[in-house]
Amino acid sequence: MSGHSTYVPKSAFGKWFESRLPIMGLTQGVFGLFTMYLPPLYPTLLRTTGAGFCYNIGRISAAIGTIIFGMATSIDYNMSLVISGMLFIPAVFFALQLPEHSEVSFDEPATGASN
Predict the structure, then answer these.
(1) In 3-state terms, what secondary structure has residue 83?
(2) Which sequence spans correspond to the domains of the chain?
(3) Is residue 9 within 8 Å of residue 78, measured between CB atoms?
């Protein structure tokens, strides 16, 4: 069968999904900037403690979210997607409160840092 290819037409969802892949990459790819943005802001001990806290809180939140949105799908699948999509709104307001790099002094050690 070498040299032969079978054409499989894409479904409407497949076309819709592929047309939105660049948008998803641009919006979710911003999280890759965290590795460049956060290290100069905080000392190593604070960064590692924060990373451990966030990973574990994320696991707990994922478990709780799975249960809550699993129950919400019995109401309406589309509404549960809207509700879970709205969770990004508080994240936007939190991100707007983050300090600029120009506001951070790199000459002085951070408060609470041990030498």
Answers:
(1) helix
(2) 39-100
(3) no
- Nearest by Cα to 87 from 115, 114, 64, 112: 64
What pLDDT does residue 102 have? 63
- How far apart CA 61 and CA 113 sit, in angstroms, is 29
Tell me the CA end-to-end span of the chain in Å, nearest whole number: 68
CA 41 – CA 109 distance, rounded (Å)? 10
pLDDT at 8 (0 to 100): 55
pTM of the model: 0.35
Q: How large is the angle between the packed helices 77-85 and 44-72, nearest 10 degrees? A: 160
Q: How far apart are CA 83 and CA 69, in angstroms?
A: 9
Confidence at residue 53, expressed as pLDDT on a 0 to 100 scale: 92
Q: Which of 25, 23, 47 is nearest to 35 (CA)?
A: 47
Tokens of 51: 């990373």
pLDDT digits (tens, 9 = 90+) for 46-101: 888 988 998 899 899 888 888 887 776 676 777 777 877 887 888 888 888 887 76
